[in-house]
Design brief:
Shape of chain B: globular
Oligomer: heterodimer
Radius of gyration of chain A: 13 Å
Strand content of chain B: over 45%
Number of strands of chain B: 11
Helix content of chain A: under 10%
Largest sheet of chain B: 7 strands, mixed
Structural class of chain A: mainly beta
Structural class of chain B: mainly beta
Largest sheet of chain A: 6 strands, mixed
Number of helices of chain B: 0
Amino acid sequence: RKEVEQDPGPFNVPEGATVAFNCTYSNSASQSFFWYRQDCRKEPKLLMSVYSSGNEDGRFTAQLNRASQYISLLIRDSKLSDSATYLCVVNARNTGFQKLVFGTGTRLLVSP
Amino acid sequence: DAGVIQSPRHEVTEMGQEVTLRCKPISGHDYLFWYRQTMMRGLELLIYFNNNVPIDDSGMPEDRFSAKMPNASFSTLKIQPSEPRDSAVYFCASRVEVRNTGELFFGEGSRLTVL
């Protein structure tokens, strides 16, 4: 079983739509969770950290469910510029931030 | 501010040749990471350094791969001899411990094609 699993998509949504991605992780000892964004042929960049209580950054909301070992990302009012691949990231066992394990990503396409 | 700088951006080589990828981390960052990205396997951590010392190289696929960090501003990833299955995008990333945010700053990557 992969340490981090994501639906590869693509998710095709119209502008203005709300879209949600889920990610599951296998290491119950993981303590740090993130969403990174990667544009086509570019490097990954941190989108947001995911906190136990859930957190919001503008149109983006991240949630963590430790019992079920999944993380979610909700994007409201989708923009064309949101089209990208979203990578779920979890720290490996007992390594703090040092060993971050990346999912293979969920691709989002927002159309006019 | 300069970000993580990688070179070359693109490399096409023939099987059996030596490949050297280079990375200059962000000044002041004390961790440096080498990742490899393919469509099938996504981003895989190959090795990381802390204060120029290799900490974990368990992700290095085999002895053909080696990495060095002779000083705080330079690292290399070498593949010798290269094979077609090494074709991937190789990313270097750095972070600073004191901020304790887990944010990695990636370079633009080196796209390697081995024929």
